[in-house]
What does this fold into?
Amino acid sequence: MKIDHSVPMEYSTDENKMKILGFWIFLGAEIALFSTLFAVYFTLQGNTKVGPTSADLFHLTPVMIETILLLSSSFTIGLGIHAMRLGLKKPMMTFFGITLALGAAFLGVEVYEFVTYVGEGATIQTSGFLSALFTLLGTHGLHVTFGLLWGGAILLQIKKRGFTPETTNKSFIFSLYWHFLDVVWIFIFSFVYLKGLM
Amino acid sequence: MKWDEFFVTGEPMIYAAMVSIVVVSLAIPIALTYFKKWNWLWTNWLTTVDHKKIGVMYILAALLMLFRGGVDAILMRAQTAVPDNGLLDGQHYNEIFTTHGVVMILFMAMPFIIGLMNVVIPLQIGARDVAFPRLNAVSFWLFFSGAMLFNISFVIGGSPDAGWSAYFPLASLEFSPTVGNNYYAIALQIAGIGTLLTGINFLVTILKMRAPGMTLMKMPMFTWSVLITNVIIVFAFPVLTVALALMTLDRQFGTQFFAMQSGGMDMLWANLFWVWGHPEVYIVILPAFGIYSEIISTFARKNLYGYKSMVVSMVAISLLSFVVWAHHFYTMGHGVMVNSVFSITTMAIAIPTGVKIFNWLFTLRKGKISFTTPMLYSLAFIPIFTIGGVTGVMLAMASADYQYHNTMFLVAHFHYVLIPGTVFAVIAGFHFWFPKVFGFMLNEKLGKLSFWFIAISFNVTFFPLFILGLNGMTRRMYTYSESTGYGPLNMLSMVGAVGLTIGFIILVYNIYWSVRYSPRNIKSDPWDARSLEWSTHSPVPEYNFALIPTVNRLDAHWFAKKEGKPLATGKYEPIHMPNNSGLPIIMGAAFFFWGFFMVFSWWIPAIVFGVVILGTLAYRTFEKDHGHYISVEEIERTEKALRGEQHEN
Ligand code: HEM
Ligand SMILES: [Cu+2]
It folds into this structure.
């Protein structure tokens, strides 16, 4: 296998380049997926029937906390990739670890939110609006959950195998995924929560 | 759920099917054990990551599904052949047109196309495999487990019965209380993920792995069509993923997406379904256009007329395909404005399609045409497909559609585009590329005989349906009274369906005959064709090309033959190849069982198999697998054998 040392290690083989391109295309598909979920949400947003409306339900504080957690995790994973490019294993692992911890905290707050909603009688079965809301948020949350498992597996591999064309490639692709989840969250924050609070 | 509900009971036909399923599923392992073929099957096929073998498995599965969908079709035609027929009851008829539609489109047409894509694309661009061979095997096994899951529904639990479009509220728990539509949602979900992965895989393959010198505008037309098709797949399939997930949530988790009384919207389903569904029909037609382009220019012995306009019109079709979906429900109450807009976008598709038709005609003009089996299908395609296209424009006119909507006219229309469009194309491609994969040709006499049966019977089967539709016979109607006067034309259509069946039987017999008797000493390029796949041996060695060809123009292989200059020179080097893996089939099996338990809402085992699926992913990420090298000596040996064999015989 030819290794090209003039580019960052995650790009250094043909296979690596193809994997990165393939993942970008996958993210294109993910954009289509979330766009569809947003479209469903906007369609059903006003259909609250007997259930609560978004203004009844949403509170800014937990949502702000979630946003801050996820945005900073996107920043720390960026630092992690930077450390990886410099060949610094320990700092890279630390930043990845922090990222995953922030992701887990985000999930914790989201679960707490869901429990609160359900406590207020707003379940996924209550109305068209709530079905769409829980499905959109839940899909994002499931992506974060999967990311925690995936990121954990990558951390273990970095720990055992160090930086190789494969492990750096995986870490880089994972960082793309994580940034993407952040972007989706920004849309959720703006167009679901902020708009819903208004 | 009680056991007598678990198995479908009380129908002689179903019992017969059960018996045959049991017999077949016992016969296969017994035969494999008796002939000591388990090992061969496992190492050569089930664990393979070779794109050619995966392609062959796709095509075999598609032929199997063609049989299944064809049996459904014959049953429907038999039921409606005479008035007041009692062969099938209403429920049974509903299930059969639903499974027929789903199987034909998702488990026959698409996999057949994807199979040909697998076999041909890497060869046509001068590559040794696809970008992600392991992922390619995963795609296949996901498709296969989805297909199997869907097919067991008619003996276990009951088939879906709300049409292939599964409109709500008909497909809701309230009106379709059996597990049938759960099967629909889960099986298509699994197969759909496989298709999405195929889309990503082939995009990267075509974008990154072309032979040196092959710029985008020097790619063969089939490769172009597949590139564009895969872009559509990547953006359309996620919509299906969401739609099916919402269906599962509504039916099994009590959500309110499509139920009107609690703030859902039934038309939301129709919109989501067709936002995927219309691009889907282009997913099965664009590669067909690519196949015809290859075959027509090969057998007219001319380069393809209007290459650039072909590419531009395919791009235009792919964009338009995303903005026409509402033409499927003009009559369902959106306003004049919406109907007008969608009417115009729909008719606009006729323009790029027309451009392509004229390009093929101009390619034929003054060509030295050889009437081989693939060419016959391609020539028949042009006029028959045009009838389908013209009736499509009729249906596109929103106001006129109030007359045709949901009648047999529509059924005739879409079979007129799907069969000459997709089915003729995959059969033509099958005959055309068969010698490349297997090293011998299908018999031309039998091929032509089956062509004439299929082409003529097709028209006898479906032309009467145009008239029946205009006379007012609605689709999905399980019977009618004699006074409607629909009887004679339906009988005629039945006669045609029998002819079609004979045609397909001859086709299958041809495969059998050719395997036994066809001469094996064909050269690498039996059709005297134009693109790179014909520059390597037939059958193709595992590594495709001992030396990667260099390309400087379109149809480089053709000009290399003319000028007597080889496309590839240099010394052999060790070739890196991926290793086989059992993981994809295990993953497919895990998805199958996960899906099965999901269908029946048996959550504990479903969760267990969900964890197994995650486990396979975890295994994959920790696995170290760097493939293997084929040594120079082995390449020399293989090449010599492939050349030598052709001399000896
Ligand atoms: C081989 C010969 C075929 C015959 C004789 C046949 C016949 C039929 C018949 C009788 C119907 C139902 C009409 C009704 O009562 O509404 C039907 C529906 C349908 N067919 Fe075919 N068909 C054939 C091949 C195909 C192929 C190759 C495809 C797709 C690639 C296809 C796709 C469909 C679809 C999507 C429906 C609509 C199902 C629904 O209403 O939900 N058919 N066909
Ligand atoms: Cu359409």
